[in-house]
Amino acid sequence: xxxxxxxxxxxxxxxxxxxxxxxxxxxxxxxxxxxxxxxxxxxxxxxxxxxxxxxxxxxxxxxxxxxxxxxxxxxxxxxxxxxxxxxxxxxxxxxxxxxxxxxxxxxxxxxxxxxxxxxxxxxxxxxxxxxxxxxxxxxxxxxxxxxxxxxxxxxxxxxxxxxxxxxxxxxxxxxxxxxxxxxxxxxxxxxxxxxxxxxxxxxxxxxxxxxxxxxxxxxxxxxxxxxxxxxxxxxxxxxxxxxxxxxxxxxxxxxxxxxxxxxxxxxxxxxxxxxxxxxxxxxxxxxxxxxxxxxxxxxxxxxxxxxxxxxxxxxxxxxxxxxxxxxxxxxxxxxxxxxxxxxxxxxxxxxxxxxxxxxxxxxxxxxxxxxxxxxxxxxxxxxxxxxxxxxxxxxxxxxxxxxxxxxxxxxxxxxxxxxxxxxxxxxxxxxxxxxxxxxxxxxxxxxxx
Length: 449
Prior knowledge:
Number of strands: 0
Distance between the termini: 54 Å
Largest sheet: none
Radius of gyration: 22 Å
Structural class: mainly alpha
Strand content: under 5%
Shape: globular
């Protein structure tokens, strides 16, 4: 039941601009408030003194990203609610992380997670894994920035490259200026915007489509309620087993070897806080993956029999959700802007985390060892390290914008599939090195590789 004429109201623009301004304001505040704290630990690790709640929210939203907002409901639209089974994988994986992996990494007081690899194996393994992880994160961030820019272009009529510039520059500004504290508190604010945007779609979709029972019946008739697809074949695309097992490893990969996530829980005050922050993510994954599944079913029921891709109304599947939002809220000015603001927030949270993580990793794994080899002092001053960390953070922000421009030329792929491909190709092998190193201490470097 799509509408023909949709538009972006001036109130929607206001909501969108407000989202960017609030994030920048957080960066300015902490840039001023923390200007007298010149150590790299303060800038990159928030002084290892953060409370549990903002870190827990940041761990969660750093994983979520705009890819989930645009890609996950479309996954349900095409392949069914079996996607929700991934929730069970997270419910299994997170307790393992909290009790097995996170305590070991936290006790080491790391800045770069790859420092563990030099202690466990040698410096060559550390450098190789740092480079692979860095390349993977930069490519992933390119997709994360491209996804909301594509959506913004769809609803505003602006060029995609201009949307990339606006979002990318805003993120680079507040991340480089405010450091880790700005990132963590901005993530907390962005979490609530993201929740509001998802709920708005779900509730309005129910009202527009005549209730949950009607959505359920349409989805059932279309074969989208495939919760119990237990086909054991590894060649079958979407089954209960692929999503549950995949969910376990999707949780393990970033929390065990991802600089972004390890950097966050290493910014907490105690090991007890680390476990609590990870456990607080359990209900968040349950709520958000349920909302993504629900919104995917709303999407299917709304466009049942009139697929906008087949009708030529959109060019890519990733534009389905923005189109749905415009049509659902065309009589409610400002709500479309709320969703687009939540989408941009999802992107900003992941991008800012990635920039900060890449700066920490590059400084600790590349710059400091090189400085120790070439300098007589052997140790870089805290002031110099902090300045370099800010320069690196800004540089990775610029590089991310450039990579996102390149994503404009990727054809015939949606963001859900593209992001999974990048994660599997780069993060998964590196995570395996960490998992083997921690669980099998009797294995040496060659056996691990």
